[in-house]
Design a protein that fits this description.
- This protein is α+β, with helices and mostly antiparallel strands.
- The protein is built from 3 helices and 11 strands.
- The strands form 3 sheets. The chain has a 5-stranded mixed beta sheet, with no helix packed on it.
- Strand 1 and strand 2 form a beta hairpin.
- The protein starts with a strand and ends with a helix.
């Protein structure tokens, strides 16, 4: 199809590409692209707070009971770890370590899954120190997956330049088939 327009007294002929599109092929291409997008993934459970005994920054992927017991013993000594079935689930534990109280809390914002699992956290930084140095944490329980994982923290502070920041906290490689069972 050709569209003919009169522009400033002249004639302009423009091929109209949309008329040549096969709608079935366009739908197939759209659906293929849509399938590649990350999708929200269910969070099966978890814990968050500012009273962890883990005083150093760390992000860990836990896929077996021995590692879970060791992590929980560091996080909350003297308490039994909550039961998890690691044949079906995994835990991602994020610890800020001892931070200034200018960070009031750490929040889970999003968990999406595509070629990898993307976990996004968020915190607001106060501009003034408040004294106590909490150890913030989030432990997220997800369906077990061998996919790579990327953990990102978004933060905001009024007196900081730039005010908004996104930091990559950790990237985990995918697990091999033997470890993912």
């Amino acid at each position: 199809m050709l569209i003919v327009l009169s522009v400033f007294g002249g004639i302009l002929a423009i091929p109209f590409a949309a008329s040549a599109i096969d709608l079935a092929k366009a739908e197939q291409a759209f659906n293929s692209d849509l399938a590649k997008l990350s999708k929200p993934t269910p969070v099966l459970g978890g814990w968050a707070g500012n009273d962890s005994e883990v005083s150093k920054f760390s992000v860990e992927r836990v896929t077996d009971p021995a590692d879970w017991n060791a992590l929980w013993a560091r996080h909350s000594p003297g308490t039994a770890p909550p039961p998890l079935d690691f044949s079906k689930v995994m835990a991602i534990a994020m610890f800020t370590g001892s931070v200034s109280s200018s960070i009031p809390q750490l929040n889970l914002i999003d968990v999406k899954e595509g070629d990898r699992i993307d976990i996004t956290t968020n915190f607001f930084e106060y501009d003034m120190q408040r004294g106590k140095r909490p150890n913030h944490y989030i432990i997220v329980v997800l369906n077990r997956s061998a996919k790579p994982i990327r953990v990102v923290a978004r933060s905001f502070g009024l007196m900081r330049v730039p005010q908004n920041r996104e930091d990559l906290w950790k990237e985990f490689e995918g697990l091999d088939a033997a470890k993912s069972r």
